[in-house]
Amino acid sequence: MTRHSRRGFLGAAAGSVAALSLPRLARAAGAPDAIQAEIVKRHDESVLRLQQWIREPSIAAENRGMDAGCETMLRLAREAGFGSAVKVPTAGHPGVFATLDAGAKRTLGLYFMYDVKQADGEWSSPPFEAALVDRPDFGKVVIGRGAVNQKGPQAAFLAALHAIRGAGHKPPVNLVLVAEGEEEIGSPHFGDVMKRPEVGAALSRCSGVFMPFAAQDADGTVTVNLGAKGVVELELVASGRSGGAGPARTSIPATAPGSTAPRSIWSRRSPRSSRPKATPRSTASPTRCASRRPPRARSSTGPPRGSTRPRPSACSRPRAGATTAPGAWRSSAWRSCRP
User: Fold this and answer.
1) Which end of the chain is more exposed for a tag (fewer CB within 10 A), N or C?
2) What are the structural domain ranges in the chain?
3) Is 31:25 a contact under the CB 8 Å cutoff?
4) Model confidence pLDDT, tens digit, residues 136-170
5) Taking a C-beta distance cutoff of 8 angstroms, is the pair 9, 223 a contact?
6) Peptide bond into 150 cis (omega under 30)
7) Could you tell me the pTM of the whole model?
8) Residue 9: exposed, middle, or buried by beta-carbon count in 10 A (0-12, 13-18, 19+)?
9) How far apart are CA 112 and CA 156, in angstroms?
């Protein structure tokens, strides 16, 4: 994460494109000044573009406005200078694939999302009116669903592209944009977009991919995020079948009420149905137990409280006809020796 002062950028739009613009554009006389002048001139236009975008709900979780949301994303990309912008069908809501050829040596990838979260809860202003509201310490702000996550930052990036083109310049890098409409529900079909040969080929030429997410603090500090974390779901399977030193078929109910995974993992007992049955006394050999000491409870570093295990004695030897399964305690021998 890189921080810049307010002097370095004029609003979040300039902040979003700073990493792209300065190296090559600085070589053109007056280029940064001309671009910032365009930002000022196009300010109202940029705010209105964001307001119109927010006023079009696109909520994947409710299957609301998704077709219109995809069409809006296509239009916004084309208006910002992307020469090619196409809809990418998926098994769910479609994605968008767009490219901007600036004739540059390097190419940068962009990840966009055109869906937003639900607008539940209380709002100080209707979530889909995108009203301009005076707020202490901030001045006029746009309030609405998507103003922060994620239409606002993306609209700022597009506004920077409008400013660069309006100043008669080109971005210092080529751009590849991939957008989806299901980010807020876990991107279940984003893989369908990424598997398209033309998408993969374009992204393979990128030096990197990032998600435009510029923000500005109350003191004017602009923050530009250069990375993001995703959501990972996994299933952990543990078994002692191969080594014979743990449960072979015992599940670990980590989410069951009152259970804790670490305590359950400590237990090495096999399921009751898989434990060897004690030999009936009538058929067992007449071996007597050399010790009938009561079983000791394990310490806090061992199995769960209440689990027992025999001390090394004659009771540890299975009675005649008894067997000990791999991974199971010799609990049958102990039970056979109990009075």
Assistant:
1) C
2) 2-224, 246-339
3) yes
4) 888 899 999 999 999 999 999 999 999 999 999 99
5) no
6) yes
7) 0.63
8) buried
9) 12
